[in-house]
Amino acid sequence: MLKLIKIKSFLTEIGEITYFARRFFKELFSKPFEFNELLRQCYSIGNKSLLLVGVTGFIIGLVITLQTRPTLEEFGAESWMPSMVSISIIREIGPVIIALTFAGRIASGIGAELGSMRVTEQIDAMEVSGTNPFKYLVVTRILAATLMLPILVILGDAIALYGSYLIENIKGEVSFQLYFNKVFDSLEFGDIVPATIKTYFFGFAIGLVGCFKGYYCKKGTVGVGLAANSAVVFSSMLLFIIDFVAVFVTDIFFEI
């Protein structure tokens, strides 16, 4: 009986998020357009995540190279290191890990911010005054997260490749030009474009879940904490599902 209740609650929440997304697309193309707030949110979301993404990307490049190089040395295949690392980071590791980091920072922040506004009745006050809080608070944040994450992923991937180069330069005395020539020679159109496209879906999912959890936060300070926590958990799970679908569709497309 308890399992049935949990399943029903989960399916109900999926339906509510779907309706929330439908309302987002409806409000997105209706006037007024909150350009100033959108720009402010883009700066806030991008700027706050910049250092975290940079450090994460740099460590990704260092760790992958340090872990993989000894194995390649056993087979005398150190020259394959730039190609292997670049494809691994660009295709999968970079987008997913940076998106998870972004979710932990942004989804929780949005959930807590909107949850606090709901608890302190600021959203209710906006509705009473004739302002559209959904348009001002939700649409701008979701759109900002959708636009900022691909840029952050590209930046994080570049920093990760630079971190990998540093290890190769120290261990194998590989020059900067030689390393990145091999990187760009190994990358193809099919490596970069699908990986970039799916980051837009990652950003949309993170912004959507964070706004949903915060906008419909229950009363009380406990509800704010639950909204922030559940936003991270739910968005992280959604990222893995989107990533699987993206990889599956990409594999079918390129097989054709």
TrEMBL record:
Belongs to the MlaE permease family. It is a multi-pass membrane protein. This is ABC transporter permease. The keyword Lipoprotein does not apply. The chain crosses the membrane at residues 50-68, 80-103, 142-167, 192-212, 224-249. Keywords: Membrane, Transmembrane, Transmembrane helix, Transport. Its main location: membrane. It comes from Algibacter agarivorans. The keyword Transmembrane applies. InterPro entries: ABC_MlaE_roteobac, Permease_MalE.
